[in-house]
Amino acid sequence: DTEVTQTPKHLVMGMTNKKSLKCEQHMGHRAMYWYKQKAKKPPELMFVYSYEKLSINESVPSRFSPECPNSSLLNLHLHALQPEDSALYLCASSHIADTLQPQHFGDGTRLSIL
Amino acid sequence: AQSVTQLDSQVPVFEEAPVELRCNYSSSVSVYLFWYVQYPNQGLQLLLKYLSGSTLVKSINGFEAEFNKSQTSFHLRKPSVHISDTAEYFCAVSLYNNNDMRFGAGTRLTVKP
For a designed S-S bond to A46, which of A34, A72, A99, B28 qualifies (C-beta 3.0 to 4.6 A apart)? Predict the structure, then answer.
């Protein structure tokens, strides 16, 4: 079982809906990440949180809004998404500012936009 | 910025045959290198990593990779593959003290009986 838990596993939503993806880890990691992965493509970094503060934002459209309410939780709020946003969204965590420790990934949320 | 190239998008092999998945990187500074494996409908799992020291790193399930600085490569090898090794394999690079990891395009390893 993965140590990073993502919910829901699957999500289907219309372009006018508002939904949230959730990610939780209890490994004491202080860095958390959101990635977007299209079919047959590598994960692409979206956001990095370090000590609950946004440290990297890879020019992601504003219809994606991350939130880190505490050191164990990372949310991704979705609003007015487009069909091209359909993808697997992966959350990961790692020890802060220390790439000697690898990133641990959740199993992802598969998002489909109608 | 650092980048990774995986030369083969698909590698089909027969069970018990050896396999090599190729990975080359580019960076003007020292990097950390990783191999991740992704099974269907799952997230990525770390397979092995090179940080420093011995250039040959090994995983618990028989995979190994060798860091070659002169050729800027980090190829993944296994002397005898199993059906269960069928998965997508991603090579990744990260700069020192930077949590920004960049992945290669991935190699789909298919092991046939």
Answer: A34
